[in-house]
């Protein structure tokens, strides 16, 4: 039984954040849609609608009770939308725990591939096609170099981001690449040293992307506003003069460390709520890192940006994922066709020791376990609000809906 210090009552399980992005949308979205500054797509409407009701009674609350002390917990349903900042972190934990079991027990590196900003208008008009091309060319560029230099096939995980720190358009790929792979004999071989031929990879990346871009233009498969082919080729020449930026981080020996490091880049939403520092009337303020302004140690200085909702909404919503578009993709040894062979290889290799979890993010407490008695709670019922704003009770075991409006006495 529970001791006397246990407190009875109702505990609500929600993420405790100082500011909720949904509150800002609730306050101004209805006014914005009457006169938007940019066209609102159906996907953007769906994303905002899901985010506004996430973890509210509008989509349901499950109630659990401790059989020992009677403590009741309310577990709010989540919208599970890819753009929602409240659902993305839990998604990351599940993804990371599953992925680290399927990775090679060798060093991995975090790499970023960034497209020149001069291509942004074309990407906006050809999102699905050109973002798909970015995935492929980034992976092929790394695979080609590792094949030419070390005669190995690596494992690659690509994650797409279309936003920068200020939530402006900044299209780039975050890549996890195994620092080693399978050689011609079928054995797993690690790479010794940190040598990288940046020029080779950059040239491969640029040439592969541009060749396919020109082919699409010549095949009339590219949406654009160029009057003549010469105008299009001038754009290609301009972006040729720009840096197709590629950045390699230091190698990490334990795959779990890589997953933990890149986890914040993968499933997270465009704007995490912990970065919001103020909601004041029609304005929102959030933190960002200024990579052009660094401190004494070379670290980017954290600054704040304040935007009116008429500027903030279109800037944020341009990053709503396309429907059914995969934001995380796997290549080389981590591709779907190689998974069966990779499992055989992993079973024959000795596992690496897991690092200690110092400073790591802790998983949230299980709301279905009483924190006082340490026993599993029992499901009671669920509630949600109907279209009239009335609370409706509903049980999984008895699906009949019961309205809790008080009955009036018969005349």
SSE string, helix = H, strand = E?
A: EHHEEHEHHEEEEHHEHEEEHEHEEE
Report the helical percentage.
Answer: 25-40%
Cα-atom radius of gyration? 25 Å
Strand order of the largest sheet: 1-3-2-14-15-16
Query: Structural class of the secondary elements?
Result: alpha+beta
Question: What proportion of the residues form beta strands (DSSP E)?
Answer: 15-25%
Low-pLDDT stretches: 1-15, 357-362, 405-411
Task: Output mean pLDDT.
Answer: 84
Number of strands: 16
Number of helices: 10
Largest sheet: 6 strands, mixed
Give the terminus-to-terminus CA distance: 49 Å
The domain tally reads 2
**Which outline best applies?**
globular
Q: What is the gist of this entry?
A:
With 411 residues, the protein is an alpha+beta fold. 33% of the residues lie in helices and 23% in strands. The strands form four sheets. The chain has a six-stranded mixed beta sheet, with no helix packed on it. Strands 9-4-6-5-13 form a five-stranded antiparallel beta sheet, sandwiched between helices. A three-stranded antiparallel beta sheet has the order 10-11-12.
Task: Provide a descriptive summary of the structure in words.
With 411 residues, the protein is an alpha+beta fold. The chain folds into two domains: 10-82 and 365-403, no CATH class; 86-270 and 319-348, no CATH class. 33% of the residues lie in helices and 23% in strands. It is built from ten helices and 16 strands. The strands form four sheets. It has a six-stranded mixed sheet, with no helix packed on it. Helix 1 (21-34) crosses helix 2 (42-53) and helix 5 (127-150) packs antiparallel against helix 6 (198-218). It is globular. Residues 1-15, 357-362 and 405-411 have low confidence and may be disordered.
